[in-house]
Amino acid sequence: MKIRIIAIGPKMPDWVQLGTEDYLKRMPRDTAIEFVPLPLGKRQKNTPKEKAIQQEGDSMLAAIKENEHVVALDLSGKAWSTEQLAEQLQGWRMGGKNVALLIGGPDGLDARCLAKAQQRWCLSNLTLPHPLVRVLLAEQLYRAWSVTQNHPYHK
């Protein structure tokens, strides 16, 4: 199974690259994680933010591969504990599809992306900066995998 994290946002600082790569290289080949960065929609003073959200939605929908299980990271989603995320990870593996995790831009996900998602996941009720979300997400996916393997990392 491959997990693709499709994320709207500018180029990330070096510390984000280092942080995410550390967890990505720990993942086994049969559960590979890949980041797919997409550009922000153009935001201008006199242009409604909905236009930028639509641009981001267009690029995100184009990046989702056919037959992927789509999970939107969204405040309206369900919050999962680490153990529940491990169960989700096992379920995704058993489902036989690759997974696309969607991270929206500063104004959230386009409604079409939310509609395409089979699941919605609330990573946190806190407002988190995009760079931190990427590192946190990579770490939590690794932690969930470690739970499924009875690996001591989780303890």
From TrEMBL:
Gene3D superfamilies annotated for this entry?
3.40.1280.10
Which residues bind S-adenosyl-L-methionine per the record? 73, 104, 123-128
User: What are the protein's GO molecular function terms?
Assistant: rRNA (pseudouridine-N3-)-methyltransferase activity
One of the record's GO cellular component terms = cytoplasm
Kindly state which reaction or reactions the protein catalyses: pseudouridine(1915) in 23S rRNA + S-adenosyl-L-methionine = N(3)-methylpseudouridine(1915) in 23S rRNA + S-adenosyl-L-homocysteine + H(+)
The secretion signal range is none
User: What InterPro entries does this protein's entry cite?
Assistant: Alpha/beta_knot_MTases, RlmH-like, tRNA_m1G_MTases_N
The family database entries (SUPFAM superfamilies) matched by this protein are listed as: alpha/beta knot
Q: What is its EC number?
A: 2.1.1.177
Keyword Nuclease applies: no
Tell me where it resides: Cytoplasm
Question: So which domain of life are we looking at?
Answer: Bacteria
For this UniProt record, give its keywords in alphabetical order, as a comma-separated list: Cytoplasm, Methyltransferase, rRNA processing, S-adenosyl-L-methionine, Transferase
Family, per entry: Belongs to the RNA methyltransferase RlmH family.
Question: HAMAP family per the record?
Answer: 23SrRNA_methyltr_H
Its biological purpose: Specifically methylates the pseudouridine at position 1915 (m3Psi1915) in 23S rRNA.
Q: How does it assemble?
A: Homodimer.
By what name is this protein known? Ribosomal RNA large subunit methyltransferase H
Q: From what organism does this protein derive?
A: Reinekea thalattae
Higher taxonomy: Bacteria, Pseudomonadati, Pseudomonadota, Gammaproteobacteria, Oceanospirillales
GN (gene name): rlmH
